[in-house]
Design goal:
By secondary structure, the chain is an alpha/beta fold. About 20% of the residues lie in helices and about 20% in strands. Helix 10 (about 300-305) links the parallel strand 12 and strand 13. The longest helix has 11 residues, at about 85-95. Mean pLDDT is about 90; it is low at about 1-20.
Length: about 325
């Protein structure tokens, strides 16, 4: 299948590279992206890994990957992924933008049906919050999975959630925010897998926490083929899959066939990009074995010195001046 140099035709090339935003800029920001978690589905420390120093040092703990978009003028909050850590993440969201509503979510956007990306929906049910009519945006197979399988179908029947079907390449207009799903190749046992292009009035972002490989995507026969470099060129900041740092980080296993691009491979692939393009990349979705999850890891320095960035929980990025 032919690779498209610029898919999602409505997307506009970003005019400025991602740059550090000052506290003054953030104070005046009306629409912002907030990072609520950077870990792989199981977070860190992971179940059964009693040797993880994060059990003793809470500062090393990492929640499953999630972001939110806050529209302060419209008093709207949009969550991307409903992770197993949704309770803590909604608390963090309340600190970033308080609301009297509960859960105060104007939409939840799901990427796919792996445990770290949708199972937090259970806390919206009658055993916990008993939420009412929370819009949940999902692709057709993901929507059908929730509608047809327990216990998720109960959320639909009890009107805890309201399923809103997505289609790849078709934008969802949310006032001054536009969200467009795009399909990617990644273990599709139950559902499609998507990333999101998120456009505010003046800046835009990619959120792509899971993909098998960049090379498979650009030669994909079962969906719209894409070069990741071309998609990065359309935005100001790109949160992309960095589950593993390099082959060998899981002792005794050959990781060469793992369905995620290693950070080392991504850096090698992107090495010839202009500095302004490399600076857009903010790696996210770190497995508990990934050394970059530790603040003092030398691997973090390698990433930064190569001109890339690593997502941190609590970071904010303004999408509207």
């Amino acid at each position: 299948m032919k690779t498209h140099t610029l898919a999602l035709g409505a997307l506009i090339l970003a005019e400025t590279p991602v740059a550090a935003q000052s506290e003054l800029e953030m104070a005046a920001c009306t629409i912002e992206l907030v990072v609520l978690g950077v870990g792989q589905d199981g977070g860190a420390p992971q179940l059964g890994n009693s040797a993880d120093p994060a059990w003793e040092d809470p500062s090393l703990r990492r929640l499953a990957t999630s972001i939110a978009v806050l529209d302060r003028e419209a008093d709207a909050r949009y969550l991307f992924e409903a992770t197993p850590d949704i309770r803590e993440q909604l608390y963090r969201l309340d600190q970033a933008m308080p609301t009297e509503a509960r859960p105060g979510l104007d939409g939840i956007f799901l990427t796919h049906g792996h445990i770290g990306h949708y199972t937090g929906l259970m806390f919206l049910g009658h055993e916990s919050m008993g939420a009412r009519d929370v819009p949940v945006y999902a692709m057709p197979s993901m929507s059908a999975f929730l509608f047809s399988n327990g216990p998720w179908d109960q959320l639909v029947r009890y009107d805890n959630i309201e399923l809103e079907e997505l289609w790849a390449g078709q934008p969802v207009e949310l006032g001054d925010v536009r969200v467009t799903a795009f399909e990617v190749p990644h273990r599709q046992e139950y559902t499609e897998v998507v990333g999101y292009h998120i456009a505010g009035p003046t800046r835009s972002a990619i959120f792509l926490p899971d993909i098998d490989s960049w090379e498979e995507w650009e030669n994909w026969e079962y969906g719209e083929a894409m070069r990741i470099e071309d998609l990065i060129a359309t935005v100001d900041v790109a949160y992309i899959d960095a589950t593993f740092y390099a082959n060998g980080e899981i002792p005794g296993r050959d990781m060469s066939g793992f369905p995620h691009p290693f950070i080392t491979h991504s850096m090698e692939r992107f090495a010839d990009l202009p500095a302004s393009e490399r600076a857009k990349v903010r790696f996210i979705h770190f497995n508990h074995t990934n050394p970059v999850r530790y603040p003092d890891a030398p691997e973090r320095d390698v990433v930064m010195e190569a001109g890339f960035n690593l997502a941190d929980e609590g970071e904010r990025y303004c999408l509207a001046d």
